[in-house]
Automatic annotation (TrEMBL):
It holds the Pfam family HbpS-like. Transmembrane segments: none annotated. It comes from the Bacteria. It comes from Streptomyces tibetensis. This is Heme-binding protein.
Length: 140
């Protein structure tokens, strides 16, 4: 008989910490962004869009978070996988919600288990990835 240890889910308080950390990183770089945090089931826990951020950045951050959650990997690591001949070449059209393979989505783990994801949109993809990574590192 095996036993498993329960892992605490991502809470709204956790999500607020992630959003604040991502925004601090973006503000330090002078970039306006939108940040989305999803729980392990893909439900929205937190969202924030800077007033000066482009409206589409909210959809972008949400899709980046969803992609990182569904594939349990940073979106920056998945770009090559969706190119023709790549591992996930047909995946974006196989799911109900479109995935977005642009850097800026990062899964969130606790005790080695996936508990959610963060997505950042509004800056250059490499910047968004850095802001999301900084938030996850600050959370850990």
């Amino acid at each position: 008989m095996s036993t498993t240890t329960a892992v605490a889910p991502l809470t709204t308080q956790d999500a607020d910490i992630l959003v604040a950390a991502a925004h601090r990183a973006a503000e330090a770089a002078g970039v306006t962004v939108s940040v989305t945090v999803l729980d392990a089931g893909g439900q929205l826990l937190a969202f924030r869009r800077d007033d000066r951020a482009v409206l589409i950045s909210g959809e972008t951050s949400t899709r980046k978070a969803y992609t990182a959650l569904q594939l349990n990997a940073p979106t920056a690591d998945l770009v090559d996988a969706v190119q023709p001949g790549g591992l996930f070449h047909t995946l974006p059209t196989a799911l109900d919600r479109p995935l977005l393979f642009i850097a800026g989505g990062v899964p969130v783990h606790r005790d080695g288990r996936l508990i959610g994801a963060i997505g950042v949109g509004g800056g250059a993809p490499e910047q968004d990835h850095g802001f999301a990574t900084a938030a996850v590192e600050a959370f850990a």
